[in-house]
Amino acid sequence: MLLNGVAATSAAYLKETASSHPCAKHALFERLNRADEQPLTPAQACAMLVNYDVHAGLLRRLLLSAAAYMPEPAVGFVLENVRNEYGNGDYTRCHEGQLHDVIDRVCKIGGIESDTMIRNEGLVKCGVRMYMRTVVDFYQPTSEDGKPIKDMRGPAITAGAITATELMAIEEFKAMQIAFRKFHLADHRWFDHVNVECDHGEESLALAEYFIDKHNEREAVEFGFTNTLAANVHLYDGLLDAIKEHGD
């Protein structure tokens, strides 16, 4: 592979691929990054987070199953991420609970009843639903007969999907942190993800490199990686639609 005319490591190539993909330039990021000048309203922020919560819930379960799907030497690249999602042994610190606390706080600012927002499937946008239908195929790849792929190609596809998700999560949390300054929530524990996702991003790159370097599964990793980036376009469409539904 060549990156800017020189030989690149697998990790550098994947980072460059993600940063140059259309999903990384989605209008959602532009909208969140200008929130200092054009703040989100509480209704917009809550609607976006409710949709984010739904997709994050799916990803947690997919990540959990991915750990069991990995060959033994690769499990360690995934387990720390799983533990963090579920609170590292203290469920009161789980990421879902942190996100719900952010939603609760923004709802209170806007005089919105949070119980009508959280887990309200009627608020989930089409783009988010499309993402959820699509991304499962790359976290849980199957052969033409619908059965799990048993050779290294299957876990390699999953590794690509995980890596794409984690690299883009870094950008998502950076942009959302800017958008939530107005609500004095930029330092909320949930936004520790800005640092946490950097760590997970490095772990996922190591996971991808394991399959590329140890098992020569570059094509499978790239398949899971690029298709998950494409699925993220649907996710970002949905999150932006959730914002726009409440005015912009």
Detailed description of the structure:
There is one protein chain. The chain has a single domain (14-244), classed as Heme Oxygenase, Chain A. Helix content is 67%, strand content 2%. It is built from nine helices and two strands. The chain has a two-stranded antiparallel sheet with strand order 1-2. Strand 1 and strand 2 form a beta hairpin. Helix 3 packs antiparallel against helix 5 and helix 7 (153-179) packs parallel to helix 9 (218-244). It is globular and about 55 Å long. The termini are far apart.
Looking at the structure, the CATH topology is Heme Oxygenase, Chain A
Identify the strand order in the major beta sheet.
1-2
Helix content: 55-70%
Total DSSP helices: 9
- CATH architecture label name: Up-down Bundle
- CATH homology superfamily: Heme oxygenase-like
Rg value: 18 Å
Question: How much of the sequence is in beta strands?
Answer: under 5%
Low-confidence runs of at least 5 consecutive residues: 1-7
Shape: globular
**Overall average residue pLDDT:** 91
How would a crystallographer describe the biggest sheet? 2 strands, antiparallel
Tag the structure with descriptive keywords.
disordered N terminus; mainly alpha; Heme Oxygenase, Chain A; single chain; two-stranded antiparallel sheet; 248 residues; 67% helix
What is the topology?
Blueprint: E1 2-3, E2 6-7, H1 10-20, H2 27-33, H3 42-69, H4 72-85, H5 95-110, H6 126-139, H7 153-179, H8 193-215, H9 218-244
Antiparallel strand pairs: 1-2
Helix pairs in contact: 1-7, 3-4, 3-5, 3-6, 3-7, 3-9, 4-8, 6-9, 7-8, 7-9
